[in-house]
Amino acid sequence: MELGDKLELLAAAARYDASCASSGSSRRAYGGLGAARPTGVCHSWTGDGRCVSLLKVLYSNACRKDCAYCANRVSIDQARASFSVEELVRLTIGFYRRNYIEGLFLSSGIFADPDIVMDRLIEVAKTLRERERFGGYIHLKAIPGCGNKLIEKAGLYADRLSANIELPTASSLARLAPQKSGAEILGAMRFIGQAEAASKEDRNRFRGRRGAPPPFAPAGQSTQLVVGASPDDDKTIVRLAAALYGRLGLRRVYYSAFIPVSADPRLPVLRSPPLLREHRLYQADWLLRFYGYKPEEILGEGESNLPTDIDPKTAWALRHPEFFPVDVDRAEYYELLRVPGIGVTGAGRIISTRRESRLRPEDLPRMGIAMKRARWFLASGGRPLFSVGVAPSPSALDPFRLRILLADAPKGMAACGPSPASAVPQLEFSFG
Amino acid sequence: MNGRTWRYDGSLEGLIVLAHRAFTEAGSSESIVDVPAAEGELFPFPDSSPHRGLPLRVVSFRDRPLSRVPPLDAPDSRLTGPSRVAEAPSSELRAFSSELFDTVIRIWMSEAALELPLLRLCAYAGLHGSDVLEDYGNPDLRAVAGASRRVSREIERLCGLARFSPRDDGLLAAALEPDANIVAALLPHFARRFGHEDFALVDVRRRLAFARRDGDFESAIGAEALAFLPDEMGDDDEEVSLWRRYFEGTENPSRKNPELQCRLMPRRYWRYLPEIAKRHEV
Questions:
Q1: Which residue has the higher pLDDT, A374 or A429?
Q2: How many CB atoms lie within 10 A of CB A423?
């Protein structure tokens, strides 16, 4: 197969992996081409609006496994191909010189024993780093089941490692991907976390002095969950994500809406991929990471799934009228963060402006506050902002009315939640 | 101070010197006012001006493209450090607040007529400290913050959207048409990225170029700037065609959302992006 055909095939095979981040690492050139910077760089956007930052391909789309939801499962009759190490090195360097990419994201089908597959991925990274002196970003997939020594080696060449958890419960994994082992996946993630922590500790001892050991995966690790292929609800997913951040120290959890690529009686029949559900999970994920929400606040008692008509932050606000209105002149940072329409930047600006001068409500839109939302939840000078310039109405804060006003189903996203008949599964992975 | 007119020729150095003066000398931010230049007049004369008697006047004069090329004394320093005349004012402003110094440079790059609020902000900061740069109730800060953010965003975008083609002599050159005069600001990023390779960044619209060859930095304007570009921009070489194949492969038809694509990567950038220009005949 020609290189161009192979490239198109193995790029298409990797497109279901949501991650394309090139951030979180700072790496000077190794004496050759390339450097990584903490903020990452987007080099293009595909027709689905996804950022292209890395050359994201599979080493091979040949796979021994038959996971029901996977586009590369062994039982699908399709062309199979593998790159050689040299081909991948050539593509990475060539594209990098043109400024098409920040680096390489390399994963693979499990075409052989996990150790052999992992070894191939490491060989590509090693050639780039040692022979080509490449300083750009490298994200390697940690192949579950491979030896820890190989993961250790991979972490010395890669900026980021990831092992995809795929499905949120062991029972779903057993049903849809019986050849995969939740224990193996979590084992790989746990090992990466430990190696990362040990590396940081080692390097701290050399702070400011020469001879520090090279960092282990300085951009940390990430993982991905397929959303909508199994009956698992959002509560299970959000709780799992919180545990992955809190206990395993993951940098990112990605959510990928299930796209049916083959017929399998174990899979749900969907009219379209659950993109809106994926979107809401990302919003919930931000609340976990940047806004200090706990999983049980995002989905309250008796709630299994995130609402589709409003975002999870607004949903929390409507469930907690006793928290509002928040006084924009006096509220603490964390209180401002609870207001729909106020983000991390906006809350910071309100606080810093208040230190310097009196905050006027008319300044808020210029500070990046989305007043369309925020005005229903803010007060200034003892007066709710929604009543400024209008006659106060007793029904103005009726939660039902507000919910309609604040509904925001994103354009172009299909509403498709899980079946209400789904049983609520338990969080079955152990993080002990 | 009284009745003094500060003259400004539109150059980066000029603006830095003025910003420094406002920061150190202005009695209050309200004392800085604009005196519009009459047509054909290089500088207005304060004595005959209706604004006569005001303590401070600022004149902006903005049509001398030659003076817009920042010198390349130290390409690895922040935004290619300004020339000697502005060296001391730059150091002092930067020592006071790197955010204020960056804002001055970004406002110059924005090419927007925002000198007046910028200088008032500098004066205010000089009197009240750098915390005022976080006071979004301040109308001058609001005026410059938006333009400054737009410039930062343009720099960020073009770090990713510049596309390089190799010339016969191996130099990698990128043609750009940025919204603001930011090409010099891209230089440190690409110098770090390209290791020892030679490269050039050419602003086609402003006819400016910055390059690094054999480790030395240089700049050019006019036809000389455009001469950095290869004869053919490599639209159909093998690397480009592989990149197009990759881009086609990586798109997910089940998630198609061209509106989002356009919002994140506006069409004005497409002309120089081989993965998309041909497909959409830009």
A1: A374
A2: 11
Query: Maximum Cα–Cα distance for chain B, whole Å?
Result: 70
Question: What tokens were used for A37?
Answer: 């910077």
CB contact under 8 A, B265 and A44: yes
**CB burial string B4-31: b at 16+ within 10 A, e below:** ebbebbbbbbbbbbbbbbbbeebeebeb
Q: What is the ipTM of this complex?
A: 0.88
Query: What is the rounded distance in angstroms from the CA atom of residue B162 to the CA atom of residue A98?
Result: 8
Instruction: Report the first-to-last Cα separation within chain A, whole angstroms.
Output: 47
Structure tokens, B214: 């054999």
pLDDT in tens, B7-28: 666 778 878 888 888 888 766 6
Q: Do A98 and B163 touch (CB under 8 A)?
A: yes
pTM, two decimal places: 0.87
CB-based contacts of A214, cutoff 8 Å, min separation 6: A156
A308, A409 contact by CB (below 8 A): yes
Is A48 within 8 Å of B260 when comparing Cβ atoms? yes
For residue A56, give the nearest of B136, B250, B254 by CB distance. Answer: B250
Inter-chain CB pairs, A–B, below 8 Å: 173
Give which of A5, A48, A101 to mutate to test B binding, by max B Cβ within 10 Å: A48
8-state DSSP, A128 = I
